[in-house]
Amino acid sequence: MIEELRNKARELLEKKEVGVIIGYGQGASAQRTTPVFITKPEEVEQLVWNEFCLNNLSVYLTREEVKELGKPALVAKGCDVKSVLGLVQENQIKRDGVVIIGMECAQVLQLTSAPVDKSDEVIEKCKTCEVHTPKLYDVLIKNPQLSTMDHGPSTAYVPVEELEGKSAEERWQYWQSVLKRCIKCYACRQVCPLCYCKRCIVEKSQPQWIDPRSEERGNFAWNVIRSFHLAGRCIGCGECARVCPMGIPLGLVNKKMAREIAEKFGYRAGEDSELSPPLS
User: Fold this and answer.
1) Are strands 33-38 and 20-26 parallel, antiparallel or unpaired?
2) Crossing angle of helices 168-179/216-229, nearest 10°?
3) Given a cut of 70, is residue 82 above it in pLDDT?
4) 100-122: buried (b, 16+ CB within 10 Å) or exposed (e) per residue?
5) What's the average model confidence in pLDDT over 72-87?
6) Fewer Cβ atoms within 10 A, N terminus or C terminus of the chain?
7) What HEC string does the chain produce?
8) Cα(160)–Cα(174) distance, rounded to whole angstroms?
9) Mind listing the pLDDT tens digit for each residue in 179-227?
10) pTM for this predicted structure
11) What is the structure's pLDDT at 155?
12) Residues 6 or more apart from 48 whose CB is under 8 A from it?
């Protein structure tokens, strides 16, 4: 897959069909990758593809410094492509303004401090993934491992159902105990492809909608408002929870919102660029 990816990237750059390849490069160790921006054919050897390609690189499609590099080609997993569709739906990018290099993905792993076994390293979203093959692409690079995998029935909403089984008081106590850990670093916002506002609500002070301090009221307001802003838009890439330094399960409330939107409006984010999000 790596050589096929590099050859296609080289071809796109040599033919000047794109100005930059947004992909994955080798990180500080064999278990880490880092985003790379390839602008010259001779640089494509920097591109890698392995089970540690975690990042949802579509977050860079709306960055001004990336736009200046020219038309992008994006190396994207199936879950990442759903974010691209969301950006197209919301008129942040044009579909013909990006070349999608779709990568068939079996699963991705995250380096842990002391993994018990390989299954402990599997990213949570991969355990319920339904888009191992991207639904939209300009180029598709196939993964031979997929034909031997048994994905089984989806269990995406099991954590939501478990929490819903608790009483209102128990749920309130749970979220209070979890959200008090928030340090307002806004890593969740920075990594989210759908958080593209030039000025976030937390940076507005006239009036000040959200207390900027890391305390109960401000923490609760920030996380609840952000979840409402993502209702019907979040595609479940899990990046917000992955980068949270305090281990807050941010994807849990997003999954709850996604299920409500699916049940009430028959809509699932990131599946059809021709449809508009029901709350837009």
Assistant:
1) antiparallel
2) 100
3) yes
4) bbbbbbebbbbeeeeeeeeeebe
5) 94
6) C
7) CHHHHHHHHHHHHHCCCCCEEEEEEECCCCCCEEEEEECCHHHHHHECCCCCCCCCHHHHHHCHHHHCCCCEEEEECHHHHHHHHHHHHCCCCCHHHCEEEEECCCCCECCCCCCCCHHHHECHHHHHCCCCCCCCCCEEECCHHHHHCCCCCCCCCHHHHHHHCCCHHHHHHHHHHHHCCCCCCCHHHHHCCCCCCCCCHHHCECCECCCCCCCHHHHHHHHHHHHHHCCCCCCCCCHHHHHCCCCCCHHHHHHHHHHHHHHHHCCCCCCCCCCCCCCC
8) 13
9) 999 999 999 999 999 999 988 888 888 888 888 788 888 888 899 889 9
10) 0.85
11) 66
12) 2, 24, 25, 26, 33
pLDDT of residue 31: 85
- Residue 113: per-residue pLDDT: 57
Residue 227 structure tokens? 């979840």
- Residue 146 confidence (pLDDT): 75
